[in-house]
Each structure stands twice: as structure tokens, then as C-alpha cells.
Amino acid sequence: MSSYKIPVPNSKHTFRDDLFKGKVLFCTGGRSGICYKIVETMMSHGVDAAIVGRDAKGLLESAQSLERSTGSKCIATSADVRDPEQLGKAVKETIDKFGKIDYVICGAAGNFLAPIDNLSPRAFKTVIDIDLLGTYNTIKATIPHLRQSHGAYLHISATLHYRGLPYQAHVSAAKAGVDALSNVLAAEEGPRGVRSNVLAPGPIGNTEGMSRLTPKGWKPENDIPLGRIGDTSDIANAAVFLFSPAASWITGTVTVVDGGEHHIRQMS
Ligand code: HXC
């Protein structure tokens, strides 16, 4: 069955400053928001990183700022996750620079609010292509390296598809697909020592998703049992755990980090 023996970690080693020293992270969507914070937090634990996205100038500025704030190395490599050839080049640049890839974050996403009858086939397909096909393309481009390093994937999903959320048909369908893809990846690659998990953030402050996609006047404290919207650090902390050796027997899971939001239904 399994050809790879999973080491059992000592919990004293989790969350130490040099937890990810000597490791390499490849992150799509790391220019801003949640993924930027995850990359920054992992770099502050010693990881070297490649951030990948369409906006070459913005990526370079983010990579420089990540290096300044953490002291670890970061390269910016521009690619559209919808294009396997561009992703292949981004992976090659990462390998040329760092020699390997241990961790992958599939975080690139696109979204907007639109009711189904206003959503053109091309609009629906655009978000499926960025969020779901982009995840598949990222997996295909990186899997040989993750097999070598016995590495781990983390997919940034959402909670909106657990129920029906108006105006989010395209992204709900895409994120449900991402969750399913991660499970299959976990099943197929587990025997080779590669893990795959999903992180599902709730509403997170100071992100493009929050500023563009939530209704005006929404009071999150009324809808979130833990009484506040999330911080990008809430997501980064969960990501550090899921990549750490403390999670070495965790694969094929979805970790929801949302202050309890998706569980509750208001009494009126
Ligand atoms: C209806 C829209 C639309 C809108 C675009 N389209 N915006 N339809 N309402 N508001 C349609 C266009 O008319 C076109 O269809 C099709 O979508 C493709 O649009 P393009 O602009 O050509 O696509 P592209 O340049 O590739 O841009 C992709 C994008 C864009 C998704 C539309 O918004 C983008 O690049 N976003 C990246 C950043 C982002 O969205 N981040 C937020 C992530 S937050 P037609 O038929 O007219 O040609 C997130 C959180 C998820 O993901 C969970 C949230 C709670």
C-alpha cells in the first residue's frame, strides 16, 4: 500500500521560529490579502517563497516588502493560473532559484457579485477557470516536485457553497470543485507522502473580497458567534499548523476558520 513512512513529530517543534527553515513555498495569489499574510507568516518561520500572479509590478513590490519584513527570500514570478505554459515557467523559475518546492498554496481567485440571469457563460467560465482550473493547473505543474519533497498542498476555498449564497453561483461552483479536487489529490498522493488540505476562510477584514463582496451596512458581529470579523493572521496561523509537521497525519480535510459564521442561523 503506502510506500512512504510518515514520521511522527514532537509537538515541542511546532511553531518554533525556524519551523520552515530550508523549505520552499510556491504560492499563487500571494500579492495581497490572505495569501500575502500566509506567505509573510511562513517566511517569518524561515520559508523561502515564490509568489505567482498576473500583475508583475505589484508582485515584485510585494516580494520586496515580504523580504524586508521577514529576512527570508522571495521571488515574484508572473503567470496566469489559467495558462499551464505560464505556470510551468513559474515553477521552473522557482526550481532554478531555490532547487525544490516543499509547499504549495493554491490561492489565486477571481470573484464578483452577479445574479445567475446576469451571468454570461463567459463570466461563469472565467471564475471557474481562475479558481478551479487554475488549481488543477497548479497541481499538475508542481506535483513532480512535491513527490520528491513529500510536500503539502493548501487550497484556499470558502464557506459560501455550504449553503446557497445569492449572486455567487460561479464562485460557489468553483470552490465546491476545489474541495473535491483536494480530496482526490489527498487520496492519490497520500501513499507518496504528499498531503492536501483545504482552508475555508469566513469574512476577513482588509481584503478585496470583504470590501467588494459584502453588502453595505452588514454587521458581522450580529452573524458571527465569536463576535468579530476575521483577521488575515487568523488564516495564516491555521496555515502554519496545516503545513507544520504537527499536521503530518492530516490530509483530505477542510479547516473552516470563520468564527463559527457558517454554522449559525439567526432567530427572527
Ligand atoms: C457580471 C461580470 C462582472 C460583474 C466581469 N464580468 N465582472 N459579469 N458582473 N461584476 C464578466 C465580463 O463581462 C466577461 O463576460 C467575463 O466576466 C470575463 O471578464 P474579464 O474582465 O474579461 O475577465 P478577467 O480580466 O479575466 O478578470 C477576471 C475577473 C476579475 C474575475 C472578472 O474580477 C479579476 O481579475 N479578479 C481578480 C481579483 C479578484 O476578483 N479577487 C477577489 C477574490 S475574493 P462577457 O460575457 O461580458 O465577455 C474571493 C473570495 C471568495 O475569491 C469568497 C468570497 C466570500
TrEMBL record:
CDD domains: TER_DECR_SDR_a
Catalytic reaction annotation: a (2E,4Z)-dienoyl-CoA + NADPH + H(+) = a 4,5-saturated-(3E)-enoyl-CoA + NADP(+); a (2E,4E)-dienoyl-CoA + NADPH + H(+) = a 4,5-saturated-(3E)-enoyl-CoA + NADP(+)
Record EC number: 1.3.1.124
Assigned keywords, A-Z: NADP, Oxidoreductase
Pfam families in the cross-refs: adh_short_C2
SUPFAM superfamilies (UniProt xref): NAD(P)-binding Rossmann-fold domains
InterPro entries with a match to the protein in the record: DECR2-like, NAD(P)-bd_dom_sf, SDR_fam
Principal EC category: oxidoreductase
Superkingdom of the organism of origin: Eukaryota
Protein name: 2,4-dienoyl-CoA reductase [(3E)-enoyl-CoA-producing]
Organism: Kwoniella shivajii
Taxonomic classification: Eukaryota, Fungi, Dikarya, Basidiomycota, Agaricomycotina
